[in-house]
Amino acid sequence: YGKNTIKFLRLHREGKKHFVKEVEVCTHLRLTSAQEYLEGNNCLVIPTDTIKNIVLVLAKEKGIPTLEQFAIDICQHFMTTFCQVAYVKTYVQEVPWQRLHENGVPHVHSFIHVPDGIRFCEAEQCRNGPLVVFAGIKDLKLMKATQSGFEGFYKNEHTTLPERHDRILCGELFCKWSYGECKDFDFDCIWNKIRECILEAFAGPPDCGEYSPSYQKTVNSIQMLVLSKVSQVQVIEVVLNNTFYNIVDMKNLGLTNDKEVLVPVETPYGSCACTLGRK
Known about the structure:
With 279 residues, the protein is α+β, with helices and mostly antiparallel strands. The protein folds into 2 domains: 2-129, Urate Oxidase; 142-277, Urate Oxidase, CATH 3.10.270.10. Helix content is 24%, strand content 41%. O2 binds at residues 48, 242. Keywords: Oxidoreductase, Peroxisome, Purine metabolism.
């Protein structure tokens, strides 16, 4: 049991310069006894309101140096403070605020909400067990206008989809990876590096791109690049929810539409998912 969607903004000041970190936290516990479920005995139950207050107090006292470190701080607090806690899991999700720049100069106290992917992490620990940390990015919307196709797929009497050598590849990406046992990592640096790998593998070189024969191959390319460049990642899961675009038929309007006006197919949409780990 636990407390979901604990939302707050942590403000840190260094002179005139302000730093903000807005997060949403979910913290769940498993106790050494199930007597509250079986017998209605609540003597070991930590109220969910107390869980919420602990999260807020830790934010006040320790700050949020990184999402991962804050999740670790929460797990360690419950493990070291309450002997009745057998397992704790914490999920932390960040609101994507970025410092506002004016004419290339960073503003000291103003920020802009940039929807270019949401960072999140999880930390979990069993009593007498290792602390395990996961991190990821979700709601990252990506598109490339060419260098994608889908051909040579299995066909039968139910197949109506035409083969395409040149199409738009667009989707919303979810990516989650495992660090294994927690170590003294530079979580910010690793997260930024993985995000760069995702963009590089999806788009290819900036001057020419790279052809994608399928959404599945793009998913695998992302995973392989991350595993080759980021040694701290042990397992990586990628889900790509696809958005398809159809060319608008403008013959009745007396116009030829050479892939210039397209409409998105909202539902149903495709989805490709794969989990890949080191041997």
